[in-house]
Amino acid sequence: MSNSAIPQIGEKRTDTWSEYLGRVGKKRDQQAFKALFDHFAPLIKGFCLNNTNQSFSSDAAEEVVQEVMLKVWQKAPSYDPSKAAASTWVYTVMRNARIDMMRRNKRHKTDSDPIDVEDLWDEDSDTGPVVQFQKLRDQEVVRDSFRILPVEQRQALTEVYMKGKSHSEVASETGLPLGTVKSRVRMGLQKIEAHLGSRTQKVPL
Amino acid sequence: MINHHPDANMLVEYANGSLPWALCISVAAHLQLCPKCRAQYSQLCSLGGAYLSEAESEPVEDDSFSRLMGRIDANDASANAFALDLSDDPESAKEASSPARELPSKHLPKVIKKLVTDELRWRKIAGPLKAARLATGQDDYEVSFHRIAKGGKVVEHDHKGIEVTLVLEGSFSDKDGVYRRGDFLVREPGQIHRPTATLDQDCLCFSVCEAPVAVTGWLGKVVNPFLSIHPS
Question: How many contacts (CB atoms, under 8 Å) link A and B?
Answer without folding.
Answer: 211
